[in-house]
Amino acid sequence: MAQPRDIDSKLAPTVEEGVERLDEQHIFTTKTLGFLIHPNIPAPSPTAKIADIGTGTGIWLLDVAKSLPPTCQFTGFDATSSSFPESSTIPSNVAFKIQDMYRPFPPSELEAYDIVAVRFTSSGIQRADWIRAVKNLMTLLKPGGWLQWIDSCNFALYNSVPGTSRAACQEIYDGLDSFRAGDDLVLGLMMREGRNLRREETWRGLGLEDVHEDVFSTDRLQEPELRLRDKGTRNIVECFVGCLESLVGVEGSGWTTQRIERLNAEAMKEVDQGVYHTLDQVCIVGRKPAGDGAEKHGGENE
Ligand SMILES: C[S@@+](CC[C@H](N)C(=O)[O-])C[C@H]1O[C@@H](n2cnc3c(N)ncnc32)[C@H](O)[C@@H]1O
């Protein structure tokens, strides 16, 4: 899950993401939110163009593509192609491109998209970086187009059986300080929100309209027979362990492969004994102004 807080950052090394973990995370997230595209965004027209930023394996984009007419077009952008799907498996109306979300997009992409979606691109993004990214992504939107940003925060650990330990899970989470470095963090898996961060106001300040934020807790997942709580906790521990592995060999980090392996084994035993996590899944949407004389973004529900 986690990436360095900024692609330019020297504080935290890049994390190689497991394809299976990302795809499993997609299932938990979609169940937690209950949607792929926020219901405040009008249903896309049959000619809609949709972009997914930090697309990873493209699992969100490919699922959206399945749910819309084949005449829609979909582009997944990512700073690296390492998780892109095999080209032979990609539908003809879907494309994947290498692109850093902080850098200017090619002219052919500007004002080309009805919906631009971002999910889980940062472990802890500073407001200034977030503003930079949002401004850059707004250049992709047609007038009246929508931006959707989904990310996590407020990780917490709980016991479900009295007297059991959650020390290893906690030590893993606490070891991730370099991923939450920086002032004025506004969103991301590694951060806890100590006060109202007024994310909606930041988006309104950038000129976005109809801005709305929803926050869903993962404790919304209530199907005990599917063991979603248990599987979701293991998924996040795997993610955190992957982040710690990237710190092995970093001077002063204190992380070794042996320490991580030991903690991982202990953490999984804790989860066996009922330790679980919750996270908040934050979804913010906003619309680029339609502009003078321009048609408001055309959706079939409008
Ligand atoms: C945790 S994965 C999430 C993948 C996908 N969005 C999902 O929800 O399954 C984070 C992805 O964001 C990408 N990413 C991180 N920083 C980025 C940046 N500055 N520009 C573009 N992609 C970035 C990473 O390469 C990685 O594929």
Describe this structure in words.
The chain has helices at 19-33, 59-67, 127-138, 167-174, 199-205, 228-245, 257-272; strands spanning 49-53, 73-78, 94-98, 113-119, 125-126, 141-158, 185-187, 209-217, 276-287. A 7-stranded mixed β-sheet has the order 3-2-1-4-6-9-8, with helices on both faces. Strands 5-7 form a two-stranded antiparallel ribbon. It is an alpha/beta fold. Helix 4 crosses helix 7 (257-272) and helix 6 packs antiparallel against helix 7. The model is unreliable at 1-13 and 293-302 (pLDDT under 50). It has one domain: Vaccinia Virus protein VP39 (Rossmann fold, 3-Layer(aba) Sandwich). Strand 1 (49-53), helix 2 and strand 2 form a beta-alpha-beta unit. The two termini are 35 Å apart. Residues 1, 3, 7, 17, 22, 26, 54-56, 59-60, 78-80, 83, 100-102, 119-121 line the site of S-adenosylmethionine (SAM). Keywords: Methyltransferase, Transferase. It comes from Cercophora newfieldiana.
Report the mean per-residue pLDDT as an integer: 90
The overall number of domains is 1
SSE ordering: HEHEEEEHEHEHEHHE
Name the poorly predicted regions.
Answer: 1-13, 293-302
Span of the ends, CA to CA = 35 Å
Main beta-sheet strand count, sense and barrel state:
7 strands, mixed
Strand order in the sheet with the most strands: 3-2-1-4-6-9-8
Which structural class fits the helix and strand makeup? Answer: alpha/beta
What's the total count of β strands?
9
Which CATH architecture would you pick?
A: 3-Layer(aba) Sandwich
Number of helices: 7
Enter the CATH topology name.
Answer: Rossmann fold
Helix content: 25-40%
Shape: globular
**CATH class bucket:** Alpha Beta
